[in-house]
Amino acid sequence: MKQTAIVNLPLHDGKAPRWLFGRMVEMSSAIVNTVVDEYGQNEFIKRISNPYWFQALSCVIGYDFHSSGTTTVTCGALKEALKKQNLGVFIAGGKGRTSRKTPEEIEKFSENTNLSTSKIERLKYSSRMSAKVDSAVLQDGYQLYHHCFFFTEKGKWSVVQQGMNNLNNYARRYHWLSDGIKSFVDEPQNAVCCDVKEDKVLDMSAKESADARKTSVDIIKDNPKHLEKYFTPSVQRTLFNFNRHAIKFTMPPHHEISDMANINIKTLQKAYEIQPENYEELIAIKGVGPKTVRSLALISSLIYGDKVSWEDPVKYSFAHGGKDGIPYPVDKQLMDSSTETLRNAIRQSKLGQKDKLNALKKLGSFF
Predict the structure, then answer these.
(1) Angstrom distance (rounded) from CA 295 to CA 290
(2) pTM > 0.85: yes or no
(3) How many CA atoms lie within 13 A of 169 on its CB side?
(4) What is the DSSP string of 223-264?
């Protein structure tokens, strides 16, 4: 369960034309076939979780626009391509309403595999938790609207999902990989890539938030009923609300914390009855969303003094970095590795000579 990247891209309206999308399906089909044949299923899953490789792939198969469409259209083309092949690799989910069909599609595609019932349930859980972490545990202002779950017949998986910020019309992409992480809520990112660093982001998965995560669980297990006073809205919003004509103002014995005023105390009570053992189990409870996470984080910080991370975890540009080291130095080794994998796949793919040359030119231009 490893989140490997977050990508920031401008939102562009419109759809990929049918003539282009059909060619993208054929091109991606040839490349995926070659990558799986030469490097194996796991390597393809790993490459999809690599933002450099994914971005290059989207350009190679024909989608030259470095915008939000590189995610939705590329994933759509890959999904169609894999439906036509028996490679033991599957893609569930997609954009908008299609994303809600992910659990159903995981079950459907798993019918022709040897995956046990428990492994299939684990895949469905991984899909749900990756989406919940990027919308509740990491609160960066980007609403998820696209979720694609890639998995193999042996249970390895990766996720490519995307959210949109309605204020700046940018889309942010999140990559996950099943290898290397033991918890969904403890620094799941291997790399966070985007062009825009937000000023205030609640990141409860950060190392700095570890104590707050533990306190959040303790609050729930100790029965949150006694905290209800902090969630009850007060009609007293200003000094004049207390006593407008008095010489001496009398402050109330307590007041609510504004960000918590709309929390559903029933959700906390439900979590208390379940008695989660850790923060991941707490987050997994149905109904525990951004408001609950934020409220528990503020209680942990304001009342119990635990540090909470308000830093956006972005570290990298969505493409290569900058030659001047801004926003970070170019990772030459990673780029060379990603490019060479694609270059070999194109050379060995069952494409026409003209298509191969065009693909290699696009890859060279991207590099």
Answers:
(1) 8
(2) no
(3) 5
(4) -GGGGHHHHS--S--SHHHH-TT-SS----S----GGGTT--
The string of pLDDT tens digits covering residues 275-297 is 999 999 999 999 999 999 999 99
Question: Is 247 or 79 the better-scoring residue by pLDDT?
Answer: 79
Residue with tokens 């060995």: 348
Phi, psi (deg, nearest 5) at residue 35: -60, -45
User: How many CA atoms are closer than 13 Å to the CA of 261, on its beta-carbon side?
Assistant: 9
As given in the structure block, the two tokens for residue 359 are 């693909």
Q: Which residue matches tokens 């049918």? A: 18
CA dist., res. 145 & res. 166, Å (int):
12
Radius of gyration of the chain (CA): 23
Q: Which two tokens mark 352?
A: 């026409």
Please tell me whether residue 175 adopts helix, strand or coil conformation: strand
Residue type (1 letter), 204 = M
8 Å CB contact between 14 and 68? no
Report phi then psi at 198, rounded to 5.
Answer: -75, 150
What tokens were used for 330?
């170019």
- Residue identified by tokens 């998965």 is 205
